[in-house]
Here is the input.
Amino acid sequence: MAADIKTRHVLLWAIFIGGMCLLPFVTTPGTLRTIIFANYLAIFAMSWDFLTGRTGYVSFGHPFLIGIGAYASAILSYRYGVPVAISIPLAVIITMIGGTLFFLPALRIRGSYFALVTLAFMELMYQLVQVIRPDITGGTRGMSGIQTITSGAFNNFYLSFALMAVIAVILWTLTRTRLGTALSAIGMNEESVRGSGLDTTKLKLFAFMVSACVAGIGGAFYVHYLGSIAPRNLFDINFLFTIIVAALIGGASTVVGPMAGAFFLTFLLEYLRPWLPGSERYFVYGAIALVLYMYQPKGLYQIIVDSLGIGKSRNKQEAAGDSAA
Here is the structure.
């Protein structure tokens, strides 16, 4: 039975990837551009969820990590002429190192204190990029004319989707290892995990490093898709909450959930734009997200699982195991 469920998971991943690969041939360039933003939002949401959804440490400073990756690659390529193929890996390394130096002390605290500290880091980053060496960071205006990796909705769709798919499969695989189980156990009861002899600080650091790595990759590729960067957009509170809401309504502590939530929110905001062109649409999507979360606290992921019958198969397997015992 376990092998059947695993085979079904692999099959569903294959169907999803195959269907997405065919999408550019049956939709418009405008819709493709919307999907590109959904792909990047999915990367950011998966990154946030791997830390918060697994360990229970709620981070309000994720744009801080995304910003390090984006600014590092933009500055290296735009100011110093470093090839993009080199600037992006360097930006990811800088994100992991810089993020660790700031966040490692915060990993020793928990709850609202951790959330407030991470929020302070995001605000700090927002202020620093505006006042320290504006000739390099672009100050309040940011930078434009940044080199893009490829052009056109068709090519950018495949690039962003390939990036999202590879990250999703890697994270999905990680969550099914003993290490992923230990991280989830921290979110349920950290004291019990510590009492079992495991080093929870190292486990949390690993979760943060993976989260920072994914955020750095997403931020670096995102800035080279946009071709510009501005602190007021990257460190906007709406951007932060969009990432968090995407992960929560999609289904926290999963991989498919943040992806589903990212696509749901992106298209919802896009369809609300003609009627609510301003920030009012964020209030509407917040209300819709709240209703959906109240209807199904486990998010869109659980709705997908129930509709595909995966949950029933899993319950039958557990029941069979109980009967055998």
User: Anything to note?
Assistant: The chain has one domain: 2-320. The two ends are 16 Å apart (CA to CA). The chain has 16 helices and two strands.
